[in-house]
Design a protein that fits this description.
alpha/beta, Rossmann fold, 5-stranded parallel beta sheet, elongated
Length: 245
């Protein structure tokens, strides 16, 4: 059998998963008993898995998630107010496809950012585009983009992903430009994209953080009214990990 030329041809066609499976099958003595249809099935399944993995890795690279968090690593037993039923539903894509939002609140160190990244990771697995931004860096990047002419392109990127994660919201009050930028992002995404907001600040204090009452009403109307809310509590997981080491 012309194994080597066939593998080369599959690789030239960009069918790297199929090439790998074909090479492995020709080296497996038990594969001789398989029918042509079974060979084709195994090779096509390998190619499909290879393509899915490449798409996932591309989505994860684009997302720039802060933590390498995976949903299967979530500790549902930790005493921090994490409801398993709600958490499992948030790992599905229904709320993302409905362009709903999620507000993860609670004190520092309880795992808000980690949980947001785990949900973002699962969304990538479910073939949804994701982008992670820390709030302070988001507004700094937008100010820089406005200065160098990239602002429309950056805003399109922020508006186009299915799930936008804004981490550490509310650490400092918004200035006039940040208020405007946030409203523009939310307006662009309203009805077509979901968002996760992590914050240490209760929602009833967001008006004073935003600063301008008109902007605050408009931002909260687009962000809060259709949002799932998960208030985490308990001791800092970082302090617990440091004490255990």
């Amino acid at each position: 059998m012309l194994t080597h030329p066939t593998v080369e041809r599959l690789q030239e066609l960009g069918l790297r998963g199929a090439a790998k499976a074909f090479s492995e099958l020709t080296q497996n003595p038990e594969a001789a008993a398989l029918s042509h249809a079974e060979w084709l099935g195994l090779i096509s399944e390998s190619e499909n898995s290879h393509r899915q993995d490449r798409r996932l890795q591309a989505r994860l690279r684009y997302a720039h998630l802060r933590h390498p968090a995976a949903p299967e690593d979530i500790d549902w037993r930790a005493a921090r107010g994490l409801d398993r039923a709600l958490g499992m539903s948030l790992l599905q894509t229904g709320w993302i496809d409905r362009a709903e939002n999620l507000i993860l609140s609670g004190p520092t160190g309880v795992g808000k950012s980690w949980l947001a990244c785990a949900i973002g990771h699962q969304a990538c697995r479910n073939n949804r585009s994701v982008l992670y931004k820390r709030a302070s860096k988001l507004f700094a990047d937008l100010a820089l983009a406005k200065a160098d002419g990239r602002y429309p392109r950056v805003m399109r990127a922020l508006g186009g992903v299915k799930l936008l994660i804004i981490d550490d919201w509310g650490l400092e009050p918004l200035n006039a430009q940040a208020r405007h930028d946030l409203l523009e992002i939310l307006e662009e995404r309203y009805g077509c994209g979901a968002a996760i907001i992590t914050t240490q600040v209760p929602i009833d204090r967001w008006h004073e953080l935003i600063g301008d009452p008109t902007y605050a009403d408009a931002i909260l109307d687009r962000l809060v009214h259709n949002a799932h809310k998960l208030d985490l509590s308990g001791d800092s997981l970082r302090r617990q990990a440091a004490s255990a080491s």
